[in-house]
Amino acid sequence: MTDAEIFDRNARRRSRDRAAPSFADHDFLRAAMIEGLVDRLASVKRAFVDMLDLGCFDGSVPAPDGARVARLDPGFAFARSAGAVQADEDRPPFADASFDLIVSAGVLDTVNDLPGALLLARRMLRPDGLFLAAFLGAPSLPTLRAALRSADADEPAPHLHPQVDVRAAGDLLSRAGFALPVADSETLDVRYPHVGRLVKDLRGMAGGNLLPGRRPFTRERAGRLAEAFQSAADPDGRVAERFTLLFLTGWSPSPDQPKPAKRGSGVTSLVHALGPGGVRSGDQ
Predict the structure, then answer these.
(1) What does the DSSP 8-state code read for residue 236?
(2) What pTM, to 2 d.p., does this model score?
């Protein structure tokens, strides 16, 4: 890890290894992401030959019929169980133009070099190859963030990761050189009996704190966090927390692709690109 990196790479690997044995008990966010990606892929009327599952976790992203699949995960346990290559998503070992489909669910929000990872994904695609990704974005976990600010009022500390919003995600796709980029979002609200259950879910999905300079909670600070979180409870004692799922779609440029329409008429070019049905939009 260098001083310029956002996340601790070693902590990220350890976090994924700890989450692997019971990941199925906490994978509801990724399951929602995969469902959205599958819906978007179903709108594409073409066959795919070689797919990369980028950040594969347990390898549960389904492949198109007949496609060969390569998988990559930064964690040893997930890589071993899914038959994947162990590597970071911004340091993939695959050659340019190796795939015609890259799918990524639930990992790009904790990649150190997200612009670089997107650029490399575009380079790993053949001309007219498709990139589909989903990850947790802004403004996720607003209740927990507010409770942490209250608990840390005397001594602020890094606890939750910076997040990308839907507008920035679309800009990153464009900067990485993808054609016909689309970024949209959906929200998922989950009600928790207490903050400990939320923290258990985050750790169980390998979504715990990976920031350099993190430090353990003292008992006093943990008590303030629990109290602040519970102050947002509904009459039944449960607290609603919101997760925002970002979905990215982009194509590797190809001379025979439809050209982007003029600003203000993007729906037309998207329909031409993806065929009948288009891409489902979410809450934005």
Answers:
(1) T
(2) 0.87
